[in-house]
Amino acid sequence: MIKIQTVCGFGCGSSLFLKMKLQEVLKANNLDAEIFCGDIGTCTSAPCDVIFTSEELGDRVKDRATVPVIVINNFVNKQEVTEKTLAFFETLK
């Protein structure tokens, strides 16, 4: 099972919103993954296959991450979230 971590500053605000958006995309495309929220301070120590985060935090996460980091510029832009999520799943094939 693919493990996706959504990351924000404290792990309970925008990361939760992004988690819900990713769940919508996965459901609409018949994809399955475990999605959980994380915070900027501890996100790189949590085992996962990919990290989704904001543009604001992207560089900070990328500097420390050992997994792909997907930057979402606008969490409410369904097209962007969908395209970037599906592009990640394509890399798994």
Question: How would you briefly describe this protein structure?
Answer:
This protein is of the alpha/beta class.
Structure description:
The structure is a single chain. The protein is of the alpha/beta class and 93 residues long. It has a single domain (3-91), classed as Response regulator (Rossmann fold). The protein contains 3 helices and 4 strands. It has helices spanning 14-28, 55-62, 78-91, and strands at 3-8, 34-39, 50-54, 69-72. The chain has a 4-stranded parallel β-sheet with strand order 2-1-3-4, sandwiched between helices. α1 packs across α3. The protein is globular. The two termini are 14 Å apart. 29% of the residues are buried. The mean pLDDT is 96.
Question: Can you give keywords for this protein?
Answer:
single chain, 4 strands, Rossmann fold, 93 residues, 3 helices, 40% helix
Count of distinct strands: 4
- One letter per element, helices H and strands E, the order comes to EHEEHEH
Strand adjacency order, main sheet: 2-1-3-4
CATH superfamily grouping: Response regulator
Number of domains: 1
Radius of gyration: 12 Å
The first-level CATH class is given as Alpha Beta
Which fold name corresponds to the CATH topology? Rossmann fold
What's the architecture, going by CATH? 3-Layer(aba) Sandwich
Reported for the largest beta sheet, the result is: 4 strands, parallel
Number of helices: 3
Shape, per Cα inertia axes: globular
Percent helix, as a range, is: 25-40%
The amount of beta strand, in percent, is: 15-25%
The helix/strand class is alpha/beta
Unreliable residue stretches: none
Mean pLDDT: 96
**CA-to-CA gap between the ends?**
14 Å
